[in-house]
Amino acid sequence: MPAPDGPPPAGTVIEVRDEEWMVRTSRQVRPGEYLIEAVGASDLVRGQEARFLAPTMDRPRVLLPEHTELIADGSPHFRRGRLFLEAVLRKTPLPQRERRLALTDGFLLDRMDYQLRPAEKALANPLRPRLLIGDVVGLGKTLEIGVLLGELIRRGRGERILVVTPAPVLEQFQHEMWTRFALPLVRLDSAGIARIERKIPAGRNPFTYYKRVIISMDTLKNRRRYRPWLEHIHWDAVVIDESHNLINQGSERRDLADLLAERTDALILASATPHNGEMAAFTGLIRLLDPMAVKDPKRPKAEELEHLMLRRTKVSAEVAEQLKDHWAPRGGSHPVRCRANDLEERVFAELAEHWLKRREQRAATEDRLFPYVLLKSFLSSHRALFVTARQRLTRTGHALPPRHRITDEPLTGITATTPEAASLLRLMELARDIERAGAGEGAPAAASKLAGLVEELRRIGVKAGSPTRAVVFSERRETLDWLGEVLPPLLGWTAEDEAKAAVKVMYSGSGTSDRVQMEYVDEFARAGSDVRLLLTGDGASEGVNLHRQCHHLIHWDLPWSLIRVEQRNGRIDRYGQTEPPEFRALILRSEVDGALDDTDIAEKVLAREERVHQVLGAVEAATKDNDADLEERRVMEALFRGEAPQPAVDALQAVSPETLDALDEGELPDGLPLAQQLNAEFGTGADTYDDEDFDIGFDFDDEPEAADTASDTPRAAPETDPAEDGTARAPVRTVEELRLFTDRRDYVLTGLEELADLEAFRLDTTVHGTDLSFDTPEDLADRLDVLPAGYLRDHGITRRMKLTFSREDAADSLRRAREDADSPSLWPDAHYVGELHPVLEWITDKVLVQLGRQQALVMQVDRARVPDPVFLTQGVWSNRDGRPTVVAWLAVDRLDRPGEAPRVRELTRNLLTDLGLGPHMPDHFAAGDPAALQRHVPAAVDATRREMQRRRREAEEHIDRPLREYEAKVGRWLEQKLPGFTGGHTARERAAENLEKAAARLRTAGDPMVRVLAVLEPSS
């Protein structure tokens, strides 16, 4: 049918450039010419936006399902028709109202409902899937993110994905998304960016060239390079890992997050420490998810936050029950005491006499806490002490030789202008004395902790010739470099190349590139690599998994922070750890009167973290400041005021030690303030949303609240249906989709057989049980080009695919990548074909293009089961984004009975069986006559349209009406007086406009799209 006179109305389905599009808007731009804005409706362009200028550049053809041509399916066992139906089922997104999970069995995961809860909670949001996943370290936030992204993709809401992580985690995250979820992300690290810049045209925006990207925050925050590109991109989903780094308003990271929050539909924030103790800063993070969520940023209510945040700990009931066979119980935290030697005692004496005993002289100075910074530098190492003293002298106007090092000759000709400077010069020389003593035969005894570390490492088996591995943490880069120099020969690695292979030093910043950090993490996770000891700092290890081959962690120096100790321990104490993780801390002990040593603060912090973690599952549930730097400062301020060390450590907790010691494991204290509730277990109650009430948690009551409505008042957890296993959670709800093949293997093999008959290529397909391999076609290789070049090269992915449909074999392939001595990387040689696998997508797309436009296949079924022809039709109501709000799969029959309306039935798995449509269809029936069925097409289409009009009323009731009510609420919110809204009224107006547009885009628009998919003809 040619284009109508004038622009086609909204909702019309048109054919342009051999694809189907649904008209959003159309208008005349000049006489005889009109502009059509459309969104893809056919399977290959679904959801893509386009503009067509007609008839100047394009001649749209209005498509009417009444004109569908019926053709006989002559393929063996009607495989072509079954493939086409399956392809349409797979390609059609789940409707907007469907909030049950669809892919729980389609990933390479051990089924654990607690890891499915974040997806369940995010999808319950009827407007935009937005959630802060705040699970403690080690529960598997990356896996939870992957589940949610998969569900978004299945709903057509995950075509364009941006993942932002710390640099060391880039490959780890990319690896998990591919090996577990078959979700390929292009990695834009330093090497990836250079590779991509060589591939794409100059000036081309890489974020339009690649639709699913992973990049580090430090790379992306470069305003000059990336912001102009980001400002013109809209994402379906943005993931920001370690999102506690976004807390500070005005920082580069926060500015980037503000931009991305406006430019995305779904937003997933992930952090094991989401609350830093400052409520206004935390609610600022929440407002990234939902600007309307919180009235008063300083005093939020728990109910304002519950729909946007989910946090569980290791002692949460559901988690503890499901993890007991997948996570070894935590071992002890053991102090390793090391007595200071004579040189070290001289340092302690200098610090005690000239820095720690003279607090009153520094009471009014801005740097009154510097003595404790100086002390901590020495507790780290003599080299760290040297650098701290040198930097202090330089800042106070003392001209030192440039780049003066501890290995240089002693300073001469430097005049100390103050007693402080004189002490710093003495400390530098004492540090130099320790360095020189260690360089001779006295090493490692010249540094007591070094001797203790070597003894401890040898005791647990970390030495040349042993497979045992350990992680050593230090706060100071100077210390890490020094340990990297002196440890290898002390542990038996005397050759330079052996030492470099066995001991790796990793820290963040300019010292170690993101590429090198990822290589070290990869090596440490592989049993076949030579690395045995990883020396790392806190920043470089953020979010990194170090537990694959390691269950020993040693704190060379201890932060004066419960949170940072827990974060360190979480690198090996996490989901998938098979051995009880053991923790040790080197404790330097002094006999000097007035000295502060590691027994005063560090050892107490170690013991307190162990107890809090054991009882509450997360130290943040008990701490006053959920920020490591603030905790350190709190301890220093207490010491400066003259408090004893034990009260100074106890003051880190909002829960008293006595209360904590009286609690059983997993028990929370009564009256826990909201700040601590947010860091215990939070947001695990029943869904906040339902179809009858679109209230997303914002209270529009204009009446002033009573002064005693404090946010710290604990709320009773909502009642939920108990699960069968006795925990307090109902089972995760899932949807069982229609399928015409036994399983994914059956679909893929049948598809390859059909394509081999239809296309000219030969794939040399080999099938062995659940394993499949075939030569990689060029168009499939193009889809995999975003994966790491080394992986594609080492495993020959672009030459030949090696796949498995067995979870056990896929898990074994992953294990071999980690454990085999000759494994070149953590990337497996055989890949699991999950629901999102590009091979499935490739076959689906290939099948869909085989059938001509507006054609439907006729398949014959047993007349004894199906006496009348049955038309299989699809009806779709869509929103303005072209995504389905209502999808109907229908069976229409009894089309030629006079005086009787056609019968319209929902197509279910049981009905498919009754109709004889499935994996084992016979093909011995005599050929039918499609032409005789052609006359029934208009009646089948008309019956489908009537059914879709009936379902339109359901869409109005459950989708459109609540969305209009929500838009009205946005208007009322804009009129509220809200304190502390960053950016003022202009920012609120922009946020309101974005929310209104989001709601308007989700409402059902235009007319339903109706398709005749196939016809079942009674056998002759």
Kindly describe this structure.
The protein is of the alpha/beta class and 1020 residues long. 38% of the residues lie in helices and 16% in strands. A 7-stranded parallel sheet has the order 9-10-8-11-12-7-13, with helices on both faces. Strands 6-24-28-25-26-27 form a 6-stranded mixed sheet, sandwiched between helices. Helix 21 links the parallel strand 18 and strand 19. The longest helix is centred in the last third of the chain and has 39 residues. About 4% of the residues have low confidence.
Q: Layout of SSEs?
A:
Elements: E1 13-16, E2 19-30, E3 33-40, E4 49-54, E5 61-62, E6 69-72, H1 79-91, H2 113-123, E7 130-133, H3 141-154, E8 161-165, H4 170-181, E9 186-187, H5 190-199, H6 206-209, E10 212-216, H7 217-220, H8 223-230, E11 235-241, H9 252-262, E12 264-270, H10 279-289, H11 302-305, E13 309-310, H12 317-323, E14 333-339, H13 342-356, H14 370-380, H15 382-395, H16 419-439, H17 448-460, E15 470-473, H18 477-490, H19 496-502, E16 503-506, H20 514-525, E17 533-536, E18 552-555, H21 562-569, E19 582-589, H22 602-616, H23 628-640, H24 645-650, H25 657-661, H26 674-677, H27 744-758, E20 766-768, E21 771-775, H28 778-783, H29 789-794, E22 800-804, H30 807-819, E23 831-832, H31 838-850, E24 855-861, E25 870-879, E26 884-893, E27 903-906, H32 909-915, H33 930-933, H34 937-975, H35 984-1002, E28 1004-1018
Parallel strand pairs: 6-24, 7-12, 7-13, 8-10, 8-11, 9-10, 11-12, 14-19, 15-17, 15-18, 16-17, 18-19, 22-23, 24-28
Antiparallel strand pairs: 1-2, 1-5, 2-3, 3-4, 20-21, 21-22, 25-26, 25-28, 26-27
